[in-house]
Amino acid sequence: MLSTLLATAALAAAPAAAPATPDLGPNLERFAYPHPVRRFAATPQGEPVTMAYMDIAPTAPANGRTVLLLHGKNFCAATWGATADALAAKGYRVIVPDQVGFCKSSKPMGFQYSFAALSNLTDALLAKRSLGKVDVVGHSMGGMLAVRLALLHPDRVDQLILVNPLGLADRIAQGVPPATLTQLLAEENRSSATSIKAYQQANYYHGTWRPEYDKWVAMSAGMSAGPGRATVANAQARTSDMIQTQPIAYELDRLRVPTTLMIGMRDTTAFGRARAPASIRASIPAIPALADATVQRIPGARLVKFDALGHSPQVEDPATFQAALLAALAR
């Protein structure tokens, strides 16, 4: 009897099991975006692909300008929802794509991922929408893509705004052994909602967490919760390889468009640091430590620091981020 009571008490005291991650589909078929999703079809490498994107019209008198929002590796176009609405309310047209390999877009198994390939697809999408120059905002991995787009298609970009971009340092040159595709695939296959949340809490939100962040964890984990897991893992591993082998650090001085660097200073993201030898791991800098040197390398660039925010200021404090973004766009 006593043992039964003790077992019952222990069970009652134990934390509730985490709910099962819903299968949202490998292309987020069962995850709603804040605006209608369109499809852009292309054949960049001999195999048809589709890019999902939102094309959001101004909700105030149009100012004649268009903003392109580029997501990061662990993010999707939907993560830009609040930012897109704020821009539309100021008269901007807003284009928000999911890059090939991510979210609602195609994930071809043998695709050769490069920032050049993604830049060319993005440029083709903008041409299809009959757009000329656009203001480009790139977050995290999207910052790397924004830089490549500006370098490959300078006539497309009016100005750049880079939000906590990756690629500001060459991790391999710093001594981080390059991971093989097999290693990267194994890392992706170990991923779960629990590990995604732990990583984001530690690196993106400086140890804090809010209930509204759970939606984005469910979005990321939900792509891999069903039979499409292998497809998603393959795309994620290949895009990780793209990030580790194609840093933008060496080409920042080639930029010739007005550029603003926006940095959440409490960000601890340092892509690849976990694979660094223990002897150098502590010396692998996070993004904020690179900010001052980076802005000096970009001709005419400005630096905006968010002292209280982390890797995703647009998610953590939308009002503060949106005010700074609108000010930067008005330069």
UniProtKB/TrEMBL annotation:
Gene3D superfamilies: alpha/beta hydrolase. Residues 66-317 form the AB hydrolase-1 domain. The keyword Zinc does not apply. Coiled coil: none annotated. Keywords: Hydrolase, Signal. GO terms for molecular function: hydrolase activity. SUPFAM superfamilies: alpha/beta-Hydrolases (SSF53474). Residues 1-20 form the signal peptide. It comes from the Bacteria. This is Alpha/beta fold hydrolase.
